[in-house]
């Protein structure tokens, strides 16, 4: 699945004039993205306070962004692991 996501992101950056790609995630799922946030690949760009109701309470919606320069650095590391796409 990660390879497919990487291919799709690479396709978007190569074929569209994009500077960044947004990802929205509810706060209760943010832990799943912790590793890519910690290495600086995705940046937290915004927060919609108490935007989503789940499991008896309201949760924030987190807006993350992947910038083209960070993707280029990530892509180099991915290529060494996965081989040339």
What does it look like?
The protein contains three helices and three strands. By secondary structure, it is α+β, with helices and mostly antiparallel strands. Strands 1-3-2 form a three-stranded antiparallel β-sheet. Helix 1 packs across helix 3 (68-82). The two termini are 14 Å apart.
What order do the helices and strands come in, and which of them pair?
Elements lengths: L1 H14 L4 E7 L7 H5 L3 E13 L2 E11 H15 L3
Antiparallel strand pairs: 1-3, 2-3
Helix pairs in contact: 1-3
Please give the number of β-strands. 3
Q: Order of strands across the widest beta sheet?
A: 1-3-2
Relative strand content: 35-45%
Instruction: Give the CA-CA distance, first to last residue.
Output: 14 Å
Taking all Cα atoms into account, the compactness measure Rg is 15 Å
Low-confidence regions: none
Number of separate helices? 3
Order of helices and strands: HEHEEH
The largest sheet is: 3 strands, antiparallel
Mean pLDDT: 87
Q: Based on helices, strands and strand pairing, what is the structural class?
A: alpha+beta
Q: What shape does the CA trace take?
A: elongated
Helicity level = 40-55%
Descriptive tags:
alpha+beta, three-stranded antiparallel beta sheet, 85 residues, elongated
What's this model, at a glance?
By secondary structure, the protein is α+β, with helices and mostly antiparallel strands. The chain is built from 3 helices and 3 strands; from the N terminus they run αβαββα.
């Amino acid at each position: 699945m990660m390879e497919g996501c990487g291919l799709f992101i690479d396709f978007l950056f190569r074929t569209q004039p994009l500077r960044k790609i947004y990802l929205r995630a509810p706060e209760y799922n943010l832990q799943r993205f912790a590793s890519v946030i910690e290495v600086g690949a995705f940046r937290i760009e915004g927060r919609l306070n108490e935007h989503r109701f789940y499991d008896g309470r309201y949760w924030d919606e987190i807006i993350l962004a992947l910038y083209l320069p960070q993707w280029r650095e990530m892509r180099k590391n991915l290529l060494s692991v996965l081989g040339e796409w």
